[in-house]
């Protein structure tokens, strides 16, 4: 009850029988919040050592909305000052207000309120958490847009899930790993673990989460993509486990599911934080810089391909790069043939040549010989067949019968390379007639109409 109605209410004292009424001198109710660090320990009547000895005062950090600058943040400081105490908290995480996607305050009357329970049901709590960690700095207002939740789901969680699916599909098979890629991704794991720890120590939560995002992106879009079926299952499992540990404070449910799905025992939340770093020895700390240079040169070469209108699936003969650049950028590439091979594979080049005489950083030979053109046709066919395998929901180990109807010129290319084509798409036979099929494709190749179909063998 509130004034003035409460002033008409009287109670009888159970001890003396006198009339009791409201005390008119009431302290600001915010005083309770400011006294919290002491009141919760019944200080100074009990637990004096906990407060005076520093075990429970000051707090390591407090987190509240930005409106609490004149509320709880202030009253904690005011009460501490009145008691001639030091600062009641060492760090403050101030959170910005939640707005709708146009920047308006959410209001039922405006009809722009988002039901948080619907978002939790649709995307899961971890996606919502990660979105708020990374959308902008903590103290900035948040313009909530459901489309951003979808982006967060796809950018991190689905990318990481697909990396796990790749591990579960190919990780237990015996392959010949690409050593330099394994060394690099372990280096990336360790560097990310160090950066995440350093950011969390200073309460830079968003920066820490973005470091994890970058590692997940590198794992999927570079390590796995460049390793393909030569991936090291041992290395991939090690990195996925490390990511699960790093993600545990941010996305506890997803991290736990990933950790246990990798065959680890106990809970990820019971692991030692420092154990997320790999103990494996890497070749050189310079490897991260060298790999970044490989990727930079690859992006320059791919841009040249685009200018020339040549698809990436079309092999080319040669890429020349300048070995002597400022700050010795390409020095590591000279020493490491594996890095040059990675660059060649990424740009789909037969050979990378180091040449100081070229103008600019790179020079791409775009001349198409008949041999290169035929190889490009074959790769395009492989891509189409792999798409049909996916449409037919085949498993990687499923053998198929491949059916085609092709113009005479393309038929010659397939005839000359049928063994390579069958190996690439796991086909038992290639037939050049229409039969019963599980999936088909009518399209054009080299501006000529083609029909391709598949059925399980």
UniProtKB/TrEMBL annotation:
SUPFAM superfamilies: Anticodon-binding domain of a subclass of class I aminoacyl-tRNA synthetases, Nucleotidylyl transferase. Transmembrane segments: none annotated. Gene3D superfamilies: HUPs (3.40.50.620), Isoleucyl-tRNA Synthetase, Domain 1 (1.10.730.10). Residues 182-317 form the Methionyl/Valyl/Leucyl/Isoleucyl-tRNA synthetase anticodon-binding domain. Keywords: Aminoacyl-tRNA synthetase, ATP-binding, Ligase, Nucleotide-binding, Protein biosynthesis. One of its GO terms (biological process) is isoleucyl-tRNA aminoacylation. It comes from the Bacteria. Pfam families: Anticodon_1, DUF5915, tRNA-synt_1. One of its GO terms (molecular function) is isoleucine-tRNA ligase activity. Residues 18-133 form the Aminoacyl-tRNA synthetase class Ia domain. PANTHER family: ISOLEUCINE--TRNA LIGASE, CYTOPLASMIC, SOLEUCYL-TRNA SYNTHETASE. This is Isoleucine--tRNA ligase. The lineage of its organism: Bacteria, Candidatus Harrisoniibacteriota.
């Amino acid at each position: 009850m509130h004034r003035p109605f409460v002033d008409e209410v009287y109670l009888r004292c159970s001890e003396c029988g006198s009339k009791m009424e409201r005390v008119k001198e009431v302290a600001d109710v915010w005083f309770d919040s400011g006294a919290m660090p002491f009141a919760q320990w019944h200080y100074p009547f009990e637990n004096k050592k906990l407060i005076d000895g520093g075990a429970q005062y000051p707090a390591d950090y407090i987190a509240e909305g930005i409106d609490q600058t004149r509320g709880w943040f202030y009253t904690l400081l005011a009460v501490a000052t009145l008691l001639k105490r030091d600062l009641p908290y060492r760090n403050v995480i101030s959170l910005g207000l939640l707005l709708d996607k146009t920047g308006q305050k959410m209001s039922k009357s405006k009809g722009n309120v988002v039901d948080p329970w619907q978002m939790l049901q649709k995307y899961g709590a971890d996606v919502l958490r990660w979105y708020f960690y990374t959308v902008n700095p903590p103290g900035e207002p948040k313009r909530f847009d459901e489309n951003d939740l979808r982006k967060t789901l796809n950018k991190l969680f689905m990318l990481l899930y697909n990396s796990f699916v790749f591990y579960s599909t190919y990780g237990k098979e015996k392959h010949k790993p690409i050593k330099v890629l394994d060394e690099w991704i372990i280096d990336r794991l360790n560097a990310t673990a160090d950066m995440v720890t350093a950011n969390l120590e200073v309460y830079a939560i968003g920066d820490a989460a973005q470091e994890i995002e970058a590692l997940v992106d590198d794992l999927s879009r570079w390590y796995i993509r460049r390793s393909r079926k030569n991936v090291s299952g041992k290395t991939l499992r090690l990195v996925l486990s490390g990511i699960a540990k790093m993600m545990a404070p941010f996305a506890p449910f997803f991290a736990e599911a990933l950790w246990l799905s990798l065959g680890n025992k106990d809970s990820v939340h019971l692991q030692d934080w420092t154990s997320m770093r790999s103990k494996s020895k890497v070749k050189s700390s310079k490897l991260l810089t060298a790999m970044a240079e490989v990727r930079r040169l690859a992006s320059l070469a791919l841009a040249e391909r685009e200018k020339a209108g040549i698809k990436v699936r079309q092999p080319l003969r040669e890429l020349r790069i300048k070995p002597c650049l400022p700050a010795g950028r390409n020095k590591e590439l000279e020493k490491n043939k594996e890095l040059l091979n990675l660059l060649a594979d990424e740009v789909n080049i037969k050979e990378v040549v180091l040449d100081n005489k070229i103008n600019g950083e790179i020079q791409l030979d775009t001349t198409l010989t008949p041999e290169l053109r035929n190889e490009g046709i074959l790769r395009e066919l492989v891509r189409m067949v792999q798409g049909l395998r996916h449409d037919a929901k085949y498993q990687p180990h499923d053998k198929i019968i491949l059916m085609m109807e092709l113009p005479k010129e393309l038929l010659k290319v397939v005839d000359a390379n049928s063994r390579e084509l069958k190996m690439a798409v796991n086909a038992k036979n290639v037939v050049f007639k229409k039969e019963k099929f599980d999936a088909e494709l009518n399209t054009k190749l080299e501006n000529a109409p083609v029909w391709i179909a598949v059925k399980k063998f």
